[in-house]
Structures are given as structure tokens and as C-alpha cells.
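Exercise 7b. C-alpha cells:
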């Protein structure tokens, strides 16, 4: 019984640490975040003042949705900053799907330390000819798509359930973009809701 209670306390502390680091990394203030995510600012104020033990799953879900990330990506901030979470897989067609959120890998030394990173693992021929098992490191924080034209990115659109690794091009219609995956036909005139810059493709660490 005491062991279960200690485990819950440990998980709660990790969730609180992750949330606070996530907010700090993105420069998020409690009031503005609460308004955007649809909850009372007191939910965060109570956490920082010690009046609440840990953020609830419901609270984390609202924050994740408002910031265009997953709960796993928020929780990754509780981890060692020298390691990067591998929370997704790249499958056929360059589609990016949820993978094993508990896996982490060493942070590449060649990437600027201030850049917050996530990674996904290539499965099968998801990015052929890049071999299976290689890692795609990308910026956790999204940028406006018009700032990433001609760059390889992890892209989320309004018309597709899964994200996609593709090069962003200017679309024909205002506010739209063409997406060019490594394999398959380009996707024309897409409405992009999030674009994360790919910064490195690397073999798995030994």
C-alpha cells in the first residue's frame, strides 16, 4: 500500500516537473495558457503554490491540445535534458504515428543545446532509402509554415489524421501549402496546422 502511494507521488512529481519545464521552454504564462486551453488559471497557480499535488490527465490533455502536442511530449520534459524522447514512428509514405513514448535516445551533440527536440524512428521503408532504425530529430516547437517553405518538416494538416514528413512548398491558393513527401504524389493546397522543422537524420546510437 505504501509502495503504491510512493509510486503515485513519484508520478505526480514527474508530471508537475514536466508541465513547469514545458511552460518555461515555451515561455507560457499561466493566465494566457489557461485562456487558450479553456480552464481556470487557478489550476496552475495551485500547482506552483503546492496546494495541488499534480496536474490531472484532463488538465494535461487540454494543454496538449491547445499547444498542438501530445501528453507524452509534455511529459518528456521530466526527462534528462541530455536525452530526447522517441515518441513516434515513421511508417509507409512518411506518415508519422504514435510509437513507444517511454523510449529516449542521447541528444545529438551537433544540434544547438537551446533547441528543444523530439524524435521519431523510421520503421521499414518509411523514408527509403534512409534505413529502418534511423532517427529523425525535429524541433518540438512548431513554426508558421510560411517560415519553413522549402524545408523538410514534420507537418500536421487539417485533412489528415497522421502527421507527415514532407518538404513544404508554397500552395496555389492563399494560406495553403503543397507538401512533397519522399515517396508518393504531392499533396496540393493543404491547410497546415503545425510544422516542425527537421534538424537531423541520424543512425541509432550504439
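Sequence design result:
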Amino acid at each position: 500500500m505504501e509502495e503504491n502511494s510512493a509510486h503515485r507521488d513519484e508520478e505526480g512529481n514527474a508530471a508537475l516537473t514536466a508541465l513547469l519545464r514545458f511552460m518555461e521552454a515555451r515561455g507560457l504564462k499561466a493566465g494566457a495558457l489557461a485562456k487558450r486551453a479553456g480552464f481556470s488559471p487557478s489550476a496552475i497557480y495551485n500547482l506552483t503554490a503546492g496546494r495541488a499535488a499534480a496536474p490531472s490527465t484532463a488538465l494535461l490533455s487540454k494543454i496538449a491540445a491547445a499547444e498542438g502536442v501530445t501528453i507524452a511530449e509534455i511529459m518528456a520534459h521530466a526527462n534528462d535534458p541530455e536525452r530526447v524522447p522517441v515518441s513516434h514512428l515513421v511508417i509507409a509514405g512518411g506518415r508519422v504515428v504514435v510509437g513507444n513514448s517511454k523510449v529516449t535516445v542521447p541528444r545529438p551533440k551537433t544540434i544547438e543545446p537551446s533547441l528543444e527536440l523530439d524524435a521519431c524512428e523510421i520503421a521499414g521503408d518509411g523514408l527509403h532509402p534512409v534505413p529502418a532504425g534511423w532517427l529523425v530529430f525535429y524541433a518540438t516547437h512548431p513554426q508558421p509554415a510560411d517560415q519553413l517553405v522549402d524545408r523538410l518538416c514534420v507537418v500536421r494538416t487539417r485533412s489528415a489524421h497522421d502527421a507527415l514528413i514532407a518538404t513544404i512548398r508554397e500552395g496555389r491558393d492563399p494560406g495553403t501549402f503543397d507538401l512533397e513527401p519522399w515517396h508518393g504524389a504531392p499533396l496540393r493546397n493543404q491547410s497546415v496546422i503545425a510544422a516542425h522543422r527537421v534538424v537531423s537524420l541520424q543512425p541509432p546510437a550504439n
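Instructor comment: Residues 149 and 168 are 5 Å apart (CA to CA). The longest strand covers residues 192-202.
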